[in-house]
Amino acid sequence: MRIELVKRKEHSRKMALLSPVIAVGLTLVAAAILFAASGTDPFLGLYKFFIEPLTDSWSVQEIIVKATPMVLIACGLAVCYLSNNWNIGAEGQFIFGALCGSFLPIVYPEFETSLTLPLMLVLGALGGAFWALIPAVLKTRFNANEILTSLMLVYVASLLLDYLVRGPWRDPGGYNFPESRLFSEAATLPLIGDGRMSIAAPVAVVVVIVLAIVLARTLKGFEIRVMGESPRAGAFAGFSAKRLTLFAFALAGGLAGLAGTMEVSGSLNQLLPTISPGYGFTAIIVAFLGRLNPVGILVAGFVLALSYIGGEAVQASMGVSDKIASVIQGLLLFFVLACDTLILYRIRLHSRRTTATGEVSRA
Amino acid sequence: MLDIVQAVLLTVITAATPLLIAAIGELVVERSGVLNLGVEGMMIMGAVVGFAAANQSGSGALGVLAAIVAGMAMSALFGFLVLGLVTNQVATGLALTILGLGVSGMIGEAFIGVPGLRLPKLDIPVLSDIPFIGPVVFQQDAIVYLSFALVGIVSYCLFRTRIGLILRAVGDNHTSAHALGYSVLKVRFLAVLFGGGCAGLAGSYMSLAYTPQWVENMTAGRGWIALALVVFSSWLPMRVIAGAYLFGAVTVLTFHAQALGAGIPSQFLSSLPYLATIVVLVLISANRRLTLVNTPACLGKPFVPDR
């Protein structure tokens, strides 16, 4: 048996919609095998992981809480990836944004006005954008690979956070625990519902809608897609690759920084040594599962958030390691990438001996 | 004083060896025109599988062997997607890293806090008795020597043999190599497997020699630093040694500075290797002449044979 790829004449629209669904299906099969391999009933495992969290109002709210930062980050990453800018340091931009957003409530806790929250959000977005612009400038100015520089800055940002919460920003009345003071009322994002859900969730939906319109209906959206698919054609149209790189990174970093600030202000209410279970990296999976399309990303964000909650659920109720969540997330990205091949290619299977023309085939 | 210098040099070697091995493997992969960003994922799998196998069998050699196989298995998965299904190389490499971190965390849960096995040091007779140099250079474990042998072999094969010529042809112009009758995909797949084996070996060095224990996420970005070292070396094997030992030295110096206190917060010192990577990348990449000459022309570009 030999697999041969035959290029389609044009993108398959049907497959563009179907491929993420197939990928999720294959992930479910793989997850069932994983549950069976770890000695549990695969069907019960799948139910506890993927279905049960959806039946309870508390965990649905938790899913939304976790989906919100990932959707925001993935929207920015989609703009980067569409324009061929490989920003994989969103985790660092999320953390640095959160640090900048936390500056006011931690250093000037007595500054409690109606301006506090808007200022925090602006500072957070600017901080994230600044952190993202470092690899962008190094790429445009010095030709340095943005994949590696953006990733290195993730480690730097998390060490900086660790230093601040253990050192200068530690809560003076906190019995030496490595955590900052709690944010005041004026620095806390208004909550919705009875859980930890804040107005960050509707903000994410607004961002999705705006970005969907920008990408589909405006010149900027056209520029982003053209520069990704054919930089040469874009250059003839008068688009500047360098300026777009700076734009894409700044947007992605700004959204990640905004997400970080809203996470700290809305859900955590203080800075801790770790403020993210890897949202910045999981958002990469969200972006690809959503096929770099804002509406797709909204759906994909829920799927990945469900995997976090599902991992906690199977650990609590079945004693399966919650690490299974990150394994399932990794497998999902593999399946998504593999299934995307179906959009551009048809897969033909050949028997080893003969091809369609009867010729002896060479492997 | 001499004792301290000796101790520092010894730790520099142990810190540099995993970087050297992982980078030399990735160099071969990139020379064939494939960019595998999953080095971190393959390394961490090598670390956990190597630790587990050595722990279960009681043999360090078996641990190392199992780690190489694990790295190769991961890279085979990558190769199948990137070469067979023509998926995006950057995204697939990332997927490999995410998967490797997840799976290693799951396998490793049983081994947290379990005392590890340390690879034995080989004592080369006579030479190891040379004062000062002897204990540093001739009393290392086998993998340290192997790492230098690997660099030598790779360098020789790449530039002095037919296999190396084919590999470079595939990486520089896959259309021409294909027209000449070479199987581009087969050459690339073999190169990817070699890179995976090296990354697995490097990972096992982390968990069997550098710090003989299993800690989740213990490679701490070394796979990514190895990727940067390939750029640093401008795809020339001998220069990887310089890069790896430079980074080994930076890592060790931060340790010693922490021990001395020096009043600098430990987090700042820990971030030095990452900042150094950025600085080095910028310095090398800004020199266009240097990078353009040696960068494989087809690096990261997909190839679908037409029939």
What do you see in this structure?
The complex is a heterodimer of chains A (363) and B (307). Chain A has 363 residues and is mainly α. Chain A has a single domain, classed as ABC transporter involved in vitamin B12 uptake, BtuC. Chain A has helices at residues 13-37, 42-51, 57-82, 90-107, 116-142, 146-166, 200-217, 219-229, 231-236, 241-268, 279-289, 294-318, 324-344, and strands spanning 2-7, 345-350. A two-stranded antiparallel ribbon of chain A has the order 1-2. Chain A is globular, with a radius of gyration of 22 Å. Chain B has a single domain, classed as ABC transporter involved in vitamin B12 uptake, BtuC (Orthogonal Bundle). Chain B is 73% helix and 0% strand. Chain B contains 14 helices and no strands. Chain B is globular and about 60 Å long. Chains A and B meet through strand 1, helix 6, helix 11 and helix 13 of A and helix 3, helix 4, helix 10, helix 12 and helix 13 of B.
Topology:
The complex is a heterodimer of chains A (363) and B (307).
Chain A: E1 2-7, H1 13-37, H2 42-51, H3 57-82, H4 90-107, H5 116-142, H6 146-166, H7 200-217, H8 219-229, H9 231-236, H10 241-268, H11 279-289, H12 294-318, H13 324-344, E2 345-350
Antiparallel strand pairs in A: 1-2
Helix pairs in contact in A: 1-2, 1-13, 2-12, 3-7, 3-8, 3-10, 3-11, 3-12, 4-5, 4-6, 4-10, 4-11, 5-6, 5-10, 7-8, 7-12, 11-12, 11-13, 12-13
Chain B: H1 2-31, H2 39-57, H3 60-84, H4 89-108, H5 133-137, H6 142-160, H7 162-172, H8 174-179, H9 184-210, H10 222-232, H11 237-260, H12 266-270, H13 272-286, H14 288-294
Helix pairs in contact in B: 1-6, 1-9, 1-10, 1-11, 2-3, 2-4, 2-9, 2-10, 3-4, 3-9, 6-7, 6-11, 7-9, 10-11, 10-13, 11-13
